[in-house]
Amino acid sequence: MTSPRPRTVARRRLVLGGGGLALAGLLAACAETPEAPPAAEAGPTLAEPTPNTTEDQLTTVVTEIGAAVAAADEARDAGKLAPRVVGSAAAFRKAMYGLIEKDDQWAQDLTAPGESLMVPMTSTDAEFPRTAIALVANSAKDGVPMFMALQQADARSPYTTWGWAQQASGVEMPEVPADLVGSAPVTPDTDDLLMTPKDALALYAKVLSDGDAADKDDKLAENPFQTETHKRIQTERKELNAGVEKDEVATIKEVFTVVEDEFAGLRTADGGAIVLATLTSVRKVAIKDGATVRYAEDNKYTTVIGTKEFTKEFIREFGTQVAVYIPAKDSDAQVQPIGATQTATGTSGS
Amino acid sequence: MQRLLAILLVLIGVIGLVLGRLGETTWAPATEVTATAELADAGPAVVIDPGVLYIGGKEGTVTVTGASDVSVITAPEGDVTSYLDGTKYTRITGASDWSTLTTEVVGADGATEIEDPTTSDLWRSVETSASPVTIDIADFAAAETGDNEQEYRPILLVTDGKAAGAEKVSITWPVEAENRWVPFAYAGGAAIAVIGLVLLVVSLGGGRRRDEEVEDADHGDRADDAVVAADPTEELPRTEDGGTPLAPTTSSAAGAAGAATAATDRTPPTAPTAPEAPASADDADLWSVVDEDQRRAESPEEDR
Fold it and tell me: What is the pLDDT at residue B257?
């Protein structure tokens, strides 16, 4: 028997090694190579727009507002209201702290929203400024909830509130869309409602000022705030002219004015809208020449003014945030005020 | 030759199996792919565009590396865009290949700082963690699919509003790629190996049978020789003239009987003796037969 020659062995090894490598390379080349990445997809296109703000986001906002108001009320420092509480809400609060400083009785008139969100109404409009309306708990135990106007001026600004209106008792509330559905916003000039919000608010202010006679078409429904306001004025009018002819001593009138730049409105489920706005009012007792109005005891107004006796006028100023439901255009219903909170902002007299 | 072929087939089969295993392990395609964006001077915010997370499927991990704690913020795309208006930031827009994320700088001349970027009311969620931060793609997808179906959301990445929103973003997706030839390598290798083994067994069995046949054949020859020796009358050469046969040289009974018969007929029997020199030419032939038989018995291999 003879051994293979070295050159033969080397050749065999070369062939085997080369073949193995070639096979390995072939198999490796056969390995699957992934396809090129696809372009990023935008995801599903939704049939309806979704709310621009979630309930969780609004909860945070409402909580911070409630905490800010509580902190400011405790310190009687309107500076603590920023940055969430702005506009009329901050101005009214600041005025009220001034009155409280002069007479602590005013503190009883402080009503404040709580930190709990009860019903959110969110807008489906992505544009700025954005609007939301929240029904929030009252800070007082067993207090009536409040409608709170929330607005975000731009993408870098926080949601802020310029006011809240306590829900009216005994009034049927409109249904609002679910928070996951959201509501379309309305503007003061939206015209597919029973009347434009601007007109509805103007009518309400006029009726508050002049009485039901101002609503000739009976478009405005009765509401507790209007009733109470008129009742207070008529009561005072009688007291001022007790024992004399009508308005012989003094006249009394409260004139309401809509604050133009504070408006929030969102659609309700029935195509109507809930709008929130601010009214300012001045209640003026005009004393006839030669007459004198004298209060037997000091009250929280005379304490602030510093006199119980008036010969010319006695003026009280208020700020009122109102919530009004405006039905859809083809509705038979009336414009229904559904909330109001009035705050005294000043008083004077001579 | 058959055995060599069998061994060769077994070897090829084993190689096939080994290749199959290698194709499943060492040569197997990667089980995940990672696309990365190295961000230099990204601006105070980095935005991963909607849907980029799902380019490789709705499973995987996003890893974000930042200079400090990284905040992962979600919000609708329009909100993020509005928020970053006027600010320099970097968008991650997709992947050019499975290892590279594509980026785009927006507002190169815009502001390079954002004040308190985590506190906006626009943000649906804000999670701040130490760098590197990971995002589970499946969890993220669950928040915008099913009952929560909505348009895909971008992810906004920020640090402190001054430093870069992120320095590096990697997205890793699992992949299910495999070598298609692996099952064939396994199947082919196994089949060839089995055929080779069968052939090997057959060839080994055939060889053994041949040996046994040769052995059997040898034993048969010896038995025949014994018979020949036991009955020399049939084979023993006779004289050409039909003369008297030579006396038998074995001590078998048959021989003895024959011898006895022969003795009765011819001459008295002679006791068998060890073979020595042939007594005659006929004796020499007889002894040569005996010698050949002995030789076979002593060296059976040489006859095969």
Answer: 41
